[in-house]
Write a structure and sequence with these properties.
The complex is a heterotrimer.
Chain A: H1 4-31, H2 36-40, H3 53-60, E1 62-65, E2 68-71, H4 74-105, H5 111-123, H6 126-140, H7 146-170, H8 174-182, H9 187-198, H10 200-216, H11 219-224, H12 232-241, H13 247-267, H14 269-276
Antiparallel strand pairs in A: 1-2
Chain B: E1 2-13, E2 16-27, E3 31-35, H1 42-50, E4 57-62, E5 65-66, E6 77-80, H2 92-102, H3 107-120, H4 136-148, E7 154-158, H5 166-181, E8 186-191, H6 194-200, E9 203-208, E10 211-216, H7 218-223, H8 228-233, E11 240-247, E12 250-253, E13 256-258, E14 269-274, E15 279-282, E16 290-300, E17 303-310, E18 315-320, E19 339-344, E20 350-352
Parallel strand pairs in B: 3-8, 3-9, 6-7, 7-8
Antiparallel strand pairs in B: 1-2, 1-4, 4-5, 9-10, 11-12, 11-14, 12-13, 14-20, 15-19, 16-17, 16-19, 17-18
Helix pairs in contact in B: 2-3, 2-4, 3-4
Chain C: H1 30-56, E1 58-59, E2 69-70, H2 74-80, H3 83-115, H4 119-127, H5 129-133, H6 136-146, H7 153-160, H8 172-200, H9 205-213, H10 217-245, H11 249-255, H12 266-275, H13 280-312
Helix pairs in contact in C: 1-13, 3-8, 3-10, 6-8, 6-11, 8-10, 8-11, 10-13, 12-13
The chains are: A mainly alpha, B alpha+beta, C mainly alpha.
Transmembrane segments (chain A): 12-34, 82-104, 116-137, 149-169, 247-267
Subcellular location (chain A): Cell membrane
Protein name (chain A): Carbohydrate ABC transporter permease
Chain lengths: 283, 360, 316
């Protein structure tokens, strides 16, 4: 029943959608290989002689500007992002997976309220907590530390882990756990040998998604840290507002900041789609 | 002395009392079938014994010691599940070997015993497979092997033949008793199938309405049911339950007079239970027989099942063995219903109180 | 089969028999034990929340620490009588309505286009995840590069089609449009992916039956498809509303709330109050208003989402 005209319109629309959502990534990627001269050329052209100068400058930390050379250690921001995101996910999994299991398996007094409270953190305005926390962190020496930031990152990563894995634990049959325990295994080994392996797709999805959310976070480190612990999101902003830095270097900085998550996303998109629906839909 | 005893066990879910003051005892090596309609609380009972669910009141004793507060892994109990409950991420070998691994049995010994159990259940050729690669029959045998391999002192079987096809079910019904008797295992077996219950049980415990209605040998449950309700649960087609009124020396059933030979209830009114095979149908009039029309005829194995209708509308099932078929070719087509006479074998009948259904 | 099996020694689960082991952890406390670490970690966050409530009831300016005192609802009264606050409410709502509205329509359209599986749609649904993986702050910076007045490719294109003097984020008349555009670019894929998963989970029979009966497409869409998709639409839009009403990253990275006060949404306004004007009391009061809104939305969202989850897990 599909007419040729309909199919052409459909293909055209799909093409437009593809262009709209991919063009910015592609263009910034192209820019990052351009010299300033190429960038400032009018009309803009995707045909140019690519150069690695921008990346070399970024990685070495010696950036050329209109007013001479400046030192910006953007690689350190990148390292901060890796440390903060990785540690946050690990902590969240260690704390969140057992809790998710408890909420899924036991109907205990206060359980639902606890679960709700934990999820509502995901939706509370972050600044509300960050303002007072800044004072406390400065007082107890957690300001500008990885530890302090990783703790606060739990606000976003922990609810994700909790709510995605909970759905998967609910789908693990209770009979399997009972069978394993009757075999003579303790509760703990049942948890590790039966429950966790069977909920693994959910745990993977939760871990991936919270890694990406942590990587993309901006406001926590903006307020609770200085450049020594700040991730690429904050680093890039400082970069763009600093005057006179070559545009190609800015583009290269942006590319470096998104490449890790983009690569991760492409290889794990099946898990991500499940995770993105917060366990509401099984793909 | 009894090996497993349940002492006044009660369990409610949200104010709904599933099991109420349940008590029973099982001897060592006994095969007890817990039989009951779905929703009677059979699964909850097994979970209480297994320790996955804690009772509100009451105690569970195994081998003389109180295990009410023990965790499942501390109880010397194995269980096979209706849905098999095989660990989907482990091979059949690892599934069966799981109890041995928990008991820290050495690698070589474990392999020997898993293979032995697998051979016994004829699944030794699929030990390397994951559960999803097994047929339902093989899954069921794997689950049984897992429950047998550790020589548990008590084996719980939760309707294990429910999800396998008719052929496997028939085979297992023959195989299971031999397998278990050889090991002297105490078994509590849950089923909704009365034939399974009759075929397997040393005793049958009939569970309904949160309590046991009767605990007895299969013969007694069938031949001396404690209530009209139990009588109806055993037998296919079900027992005929006919209102009977005392009239002189005989009974008035379905508007007909029946002579009583032998002991009869000393009540004016009661319910008379007659199994279909104790209804003798004949095309010739006989004294003390109820005049009926033959409404329908169906073959059941080598027997012929007839639905009879008395003049006052009472429906009676009759089941005749081969060779005595009243209407050999089935019913003639057309509206005409053959006239016949049904004689109830009073000596093999049961009498129940009209109101309570209790055996008189 | 011969069932006379050599009897191995039974495996005993109880060591020795005498002196029975009690369970190490009673089944009653186990769930608390499991969930407490997670909860305790977040309690550390709950304390600052209470502090924030107190701040919002205080006159508290870092520049005049000696003037700090309790003023009850003074901050709120001041807020509700100031035009700047109502501008913040207006901009935040406009931003939310625009982003959620456009993303919902566009997301639904994309999901419908991708519904039928083919090589092209499979590829596109993978690529569609990419904008979602870009940090909103970075996305804003990417668009900032593309809309730069000197060399931005978009500025050039807009100029080329005859719209001169379109200054994107730099002009009050187009700033809202620009940040909404970035938000749409980042988050539409989220809605599209959620709805696509919903669409692919729908039963086929109603659609096949409608096709056999020759039911008009508009009827199928409005009377069959939309009602079946409604829970997903609701969940997706509530989720996005919660994010949009508190958007900070995109707006801050793009214009820092400017030009002027054009884009001073709740969190950006509050950030300025706290870090530029050092007025912690007023900043906290603004956030409290925002919190009340998000809490109400969260409650509605949770009800909806629980229902959806139960349906997806097959027990309801």
């Amino acid at each position: 029943m599909q007419s040729p005209a309909f199919r052409v319109v459909r293909a055209l629309l799909l093409l437009l959608i593809g262009i709209f959502f991919l063009f910015p990534i592609v263009w910034v990627l192209l820019m990052s290989f351009m010299t300033n001269v190429d960038i400032l050329r009018s009309p803009p052209s995707p045909f140019f002689v690519p150069t690695l100068r921008n990346y070399v400058a970024l990685i070495s930390g010696h950036l050329s500007t209109s007013s001479g050379e400046v030192q910006i250690d953007y690689m350190h921001n990148l390292l901060n992002s890796v440390i903060l995101s990785t540690c946050s996910v690990i902590v969240s999994l260690i704390l969140g997976v057992p809790a998710a299991y408890a909420f899924a398996r036991f109907k205990f007094r206060g359980g639902e309220d606890m679960a709700f409270t934990l999820l509502s953190f995901r939706f509370a305005p972050p600044l509300l907590v960050l303002l007072p926390l800044l004072g406390y962190f400065q007082a107890i020496g957690l300001y500008d530390t990885y530890f302090g930031l990783i703790w606060v990152y739990q606000l976003i990563t922990l609810p994700l882990v909790l709510w995605i894995t909970r759905g998967y634990f609910e789908d693990v049959s209770e009979d399997l756990e009972l069978a394993y325990r009757l075999d003579g295994h303790s509760w703990l080994s049942t948890f590790f040998r039966i429950s966790i392996p069977l909920a693994r797709p959910g745990i993977a999805a939760a871990g991936l998604l919270s890694f990406i959310f942590a990587w993309n976070n901006f406001i926590f480190a903006l307020i609770l840290g200085s450049s020594s612990v700040q991730p690429v999101t904050v680093g890039a902003l400082a970069f763009i507002t600093a005057s006179g830095i070559e545009y190609g270097q800015i583009a290269a900085a942006l590319v470096l900041s998104v490449i890790p998550t983009l690569i991760l996303a492409i290889f794990t998109q099946r898990y991500l789609v499940e995770g993105l629906s917060l366990g509401a839909i099984k793909g | 002395m009894s090996f497993l005893s349940i002492d006044r066990l009660s369990k409610s879910y949200r104010k709904n009392e599933v099991i109420r003051d349940l008590s029973f005892a099982v001897d060592r090596g006994e095969f007890l079938v817990v039989f009951g309609p779905s929703g009677a609380g059979k699964t909850v009972l097994l979970r209480l014994i297994a320790g996955m669910v804690r009772p509100d009141r009451g105690r569970v004793l195994l081998g003389g010691s109180d295990i009410t507060d023990d965790n499942p892994e501390q109880r010397d109990i194995a269980m096979a599940f209706q849905n098999f409950a095989l660990y989907p991420h482990m091979s059949a070998f690892d599934n069966i070997g799981s109890p041995l691994r928990a008991a820290k049995v050495g690698e070589a010994e474990r392999r020997r015993r898993v293979e032995e159990a697998a051979k016994l259940l004829r699944i030794d050729h699929v030990l390397g497979h994951l559960p999803r690669a097994l047929s339902n029959g093989q899954k069921q045998r794997t689950a049984l092997a897992r429950s047998l391999v550790s020589e548990p002192s008590l084996l719980l079987l939760d309707d294990p033949l429910r999800n396998v096809d008719a052929k496997v079910r028939y085979e297992m019904r023959l195989e299971l008793p031999r397998l278990l008797r050889a090991r002297d295992t105490t078994v509590v077996y849950v089923t909704q199938d009365y034939k399974e219950a009759m075929a397997l049980g040393d005793r049958i415990a009939v569970l309904a309405d949160g309590g046991f209605q009767q605990i007895d040998t299969p013969e007694r449950v069938y031949n001396a049911p404690a209530s009209a309700r139990i009588a109806r649960l055993f037998g296919d087609p079900p027992i005929n339950l006919l209102p009977a009124v005392r009239s002189g020396a005989g009974l008035r059933v379905a508007s007909s007079e029946i002579a009583l030979d032998g002991a009869a209830p000393d009540r004016a009114e009661c319910t008379m239970g007659v199994r279909p095979e104790d209804v003798i149908v004949s095309l010739e009039q006989a004294s003390g027989a109820i005049p009926v029309e033959i409404d329908a005829v169906t073959p059941l194995n080598d027997r012929q099942v007839m639905l009879l209708r008395a003049d006052d509308g009472t429906e009676i099932f009759a089941s005749q063995p081969q060779g005595t078929h009243v209407v050999p070719g089935g019913l003639p087509s057309g509206r005409e219903r053959p006239r016949a006479w049904a004689r109830l074998d009073v000596s093999r009948s049961h009498f129940f109180e009209t109101a309570s259904g209790a055996r008189v | 089969m011969d069932a006379t099996l050599s009897r191995p020694a039974p495996v005993s689960k109880k060591g020795g028999g005498a002196g029975k082991r009690r369970p190490l952890v009673s089944a009653r406390v186990l769930p608390y034990l499991l969930s407490l670490p997670a909860l305790l970690t977040c309690i550390g966050i709950l304390i600052p929340f209470i502090t924030a409530v107190i701040y919002s009831l205080e006159r508290y300016n870092l520049a005049f620490p000696q003037a700090r005192r309790f003023v009850w609802f003074g901050n709120f009264i001041h807020l509700f009588s100031s035009a700047g606050f109502w501008h913040t409410v207006y901009v935040s709502l406009a931003y939310t309505v625009l982003t959620v509205g456009v993303e919902l329509l566009l997301g639904l359209g994309i999901a419908l286009l991708l519904w039928r599986r083919s090589l092209l749609t499979n590829l596109l649904s993978v690529l569609l995840i990419l904008p979602l993986m870009v940090a909103p702050a970075i996305a804003a910076l990417m668009w900032k590069l593309m809309t730069n007045a000197n060399f931005g490719v978009l500025s050039y294109l807009v100029n080329a089609v005859g719209i001169h003097d379109f200054r994107w984020g730099a002009s009050p008349s187009t700033a809202l449009f620009t940040v909404v555009l970035v938000d749409v670019w980042v988050y539409t894929p989220f809605i599209a992916i959620l709805l696509l998963a919903g669409l692919r989970g729908l039963p086929r029979q109603p659609f096949e039956a409608a096709e056999l009966d020759g039911v008009p497409a508009s009827f199928v869409f409005f009377r069959i498809l939309l009602p079946m998709l409604l829970p997903y639409l609701l969940t997706a839009s509530l989720f996005r509303m919660l994010d949009s009403i508190q958007q900070f990253d995109i707006i801050y990275a793009m214009t820092q709330g400017g030009p002027g006060d054009t884009l001073l949404v709740f969190q950006v306004q509050s950030y300025l109050q706290a870090f530029t004007f050092t007025d912690i009391g007023r900043a906290s009061a603004i956030l409290m208003v925002l919190w009340v809104i998000t809490y109400a939305l969260t409650t509605v969202f949770m009800k909806n989402w629980t229902r959806l989850r139960e349906r997806a897990h097959g027990h309801a």
